[in-house]
What we know:
The complex is a heterodimer of chains A (643) and B (322).
Chain A: H1 3-7, H2 12-25, H3 27-44, H4 82-118, H5 120-134, H6 138-149, H7 153-180, H8 183-190, H9 195-231, H10 243-251, H11 259-286, H12 288-294, E1 303-304, E2 320-331, E3 334-346, E4 351-355, H13 362-369, E5 378-387, E6 390-391, H14 397-403, E7 408-411, H15 415-418, H16 425-436, H17 441-454, H18 460-463, H19 473-485, E8 491-495, H20 503-520, E9 523-528, H21 531-537, E10 540-545, E11 548-554, H22 555-560, H23 565-572, E12 622-625, E13 628-630, H24 638-642
Parallel strand pairs in A: 1-5, 4-9, 4-10, 7-8, 8-9
Antiparallel strand pairs in A: 2-3, 2-5, 5-6, 10-11, 11-13, 12-13
Chain B: E1 6-16, E2 28-39, E3 44-48, H1 55-62, E4 70-75, E5 78-79, H2 80-86, H3 88-94, E6 95-98, H4 112-122, H5 128-141, H6 158-170, E7 176-180, H7 188-205, E8 208-213, H8 216-222, E9 225-230, E10 233-239, H9 240-245, H10 250-258
Parallel strand pairs in B: 3-8, 3-9, 6-7, 7-8
Antiparallel strand pairs in B: 1-2, 1-4, 4-5, 9-10
Amino acid sequence: MGRAARSSAPAGRARRTGAWALLARNHLAVAGLGVVTFVCLVALAAPLLPLADPNATAPADRLLRPGEGGHLLGTDALGRDLLSRLVWGARVSIAVGLSATLIAAAVGSLIGLVAGYAGGRVDNWLMRGIDMVMAFPYILLALAIVAVLGPGLLNALYAIAIVNVPFFARNIRGITLGLARREFVDAARLSGKSHPRILLTEVLPNVLPVIVITMSTTVGWMILETAGLSFLGLGAQPPQSDLGSMLGEGRRVLFTHPHVSVVPGLAILVLVMGINLLGDGIRDVLDPRLKSGALSRPVARTAVRRTAVPERQDHPGAVLELQGMETEFHVGGQVYRAVGGVDLHLAPGECVGLVGESGSGKSVTAMSVMGLVPTPPGRIAGGAAWLDGSDLFALSDEEIRQRRGRDVAHVFQDPLGTLHPLHTVGAQLVEAIRAHRPMPRTEAEAAACDLLALVRIPNPAERMQAFPHELSGGMRQRVCIAMGLANDPSVLIADEPTTALDVTVQAQVLALMDRLRRERDSAILFITHDFGVVSAICDRVAVMYAGRIVETGPTDEILAAPAHPYTDRLIACVPVLGAPDRRLEAISGRPPVVNALPPGCAFADRCPRARDECRVGDIALVEQGGGRAVRCLFPMEREVADG
Amino acid sequence: MAEPLVRIDGVSRVFGGGHTLLRRPLPAVHAVQDVSLDVAPGETLGIVGESGCGKSTLARMLVGLDGPTRGAIRLGDTDLVAEGRRDPAALARRAQYVFQDPIASLNPRKTIRAILEAPLGFLCGLRGADREARLQELMAQVNLAPEFLDRYPHEFSGGQAQRIGIARALAPDPALVVLDEPVSALDVSVQAQVLNLLDELKARLGLTYLFISHDLSVVETVCDRVAVMYFGRVVEIGPVRDIFARPRHPYTRLLLDSVPVPGRKPGVTEDANTELPDPYDPPPGCAFRARCPLAVARCGTDRPELDAGPHPVACWEAPPPQ
């Protein structure tokens, strides 16, 4: 997704207060909360409520049906009031379930934290111990523990806690393992903190939400397991009531007097259901992975919500033309205008560089073309993208799917993230080919092999069998380029394809792309932040700032004499090899957030040449001749730029 | 050269290795092999090389986050490795580290105040008003407004977060600061701000920098001397201008030719078919041999050592120093 949307997302403080609001929006969780609160309040208030003595037997009143003899829920085989036993029993069940959860969470989390943080041998010993506990079916293990300790509620509690320790330990160890290698832990060591202190003050706060999530999803289980042991007669001992033992007692008269077992059964069902619904709700609110939009489930294509289709301005010979393209993100009532009207055209065999800082909208521009911006929250709000004369935004979902990878292909920054880790690169290439050109597998394999040879991977036939992790970073990116070229696309969109690579590999990949576009006549839209890379491969360059193109023209001319002050500063603030004495001119301030763009020029606040006129109205991209255009009222003269 | 602040002597670091229970040897990666370097007080020594060349491992050993398998490191007149084991806090008072990813190096659940107070409390023993005064001073040093102290890391841009990382490193008033790719995660317009700040702090506080980077143009701008690492070894070391103007090692030349420079058309660099050396099975002789245009038969059998002089290089076929 666009870095723009993330970097300009609303401040986290507002999000944190929204946790309750989020939970309140989940109706099932609210229902669960209601049930749990009600049951807990009633259980807590049991001594105060006008209930009969739960243990007082009355043989004369045995097995009364609900409502008979003043007993609201009837009586059991010994004539004890079921309502009273239910309330007191729920009290016991909840208390045991909660205590077992707390014990299991405390012990399990501690083991997980220590194992994950210490690593190595400590981790090995602790986790093998946990594995041994897990090797037994849990109910068998609980039975064995109770058999050794003897029946009784407290022993059942210990058994359930022990059985659930591995669950916490493994969960927490996994999270801790990731955290313990993070840089902030190293930083804390260099701040003079001892290992136990780091574990408690640096790692634990980051693990706590996971502990809470795990607890909220296991409490229900624990209550169920308590009931299970009591049902078998190993938990609560007579005359004490608990939901499980009530069920067990009712079993004997199940067919003659079903209400004796149905009442506690229903109580267990409602209580556990309520807890689980609430637990799921809490997890959805707290889990950062779900929070970051995994639940919103983007649709297969960016939504198009444009009011008008612009009149096509024909650029002769162009294969892809973007015209006034606008892409917005709607997040929490705010509209982030990530792309605010971009005009761009590419001719066959041409390489156009799209340059800008993170958040300038260059990636979103690239993703919008084939509808790859996630919806929600993204949408295309205006403009058009003409590919060989047809408007991409007007096509049906099926048509756009057909064209993805066939007419327009993408190469992304991180090749390891783009390739599927479980399939060989050969299989992935074959899939890419056959998705658009149905052909026999052997034929497709030959074509894939040719592609690998085309991107100059040595030993292509052998490398077909390699998994992505077996290749170096440069090799992986070549495979991605080969995949992009699989169907001879007319446009290749490369989003920072060399940023993650070493300089020597970058030079190879750039040379490869330059050669391929000349040989195959593909147009390349090359996204980068590095003017050196632009200079190496791009014929033309477009500089983006705050979602709009501020300057465009032939690469050499723009590098020699930038017309927009932003371009000028962007070039001046980067050290250049061979010119170590050049003073680095930092650009003061930060780019504006795209949900509150100022009127006039977005760069005015950081611009040394800004005047009052720059802060009003809309500033147009003005043609300067020679294919150059600049969005500035007072563009830099060539003499000024040279001097 | 004056008495060096840091003296690295024959340091190696091997990951893995050893034997299984059945006495079968386990694979070992030689991340750093027999590196010897001096860092003079007040200088900026750059370490360049591609990913996996061992530069970060070397940097981590200098602050005690990792220990060498062989060799010695001295900081001033103390044994850095022994001190790091015995009293990590004492070492942390003298050698500090700035991390590559500024956001990841700040605990997301702590305020900036809590993050900066940790070194002041645990390393310097500052409490109360003294600590508060030092906090304000640190924030002023890195040009951040004091009201940022009560915010959380995710509220900061990369450049601001990196300044907090620098402030934390400066908190115990160290003599040596190891900068591990301090600007490579930042936007280009922010890079210059941070580089200029580092330059200013060095001049004002008399710091010594060890500057790790893969970006040769940044190294050329900020460093006095530079060491080029390849496959765990230093292959060339010397004054930065000298090396960048007249590289003696073919690997340094390849690196310099590979950097895309605005306005310069890329030349032919190297054939893509070259195989990189396998870290589990280092080749005999020079590790760069397979990629080297100058390679001769001797390179496959004898490993070249750094020669003498102001600009030493480890290469049999290197041109003589000028």
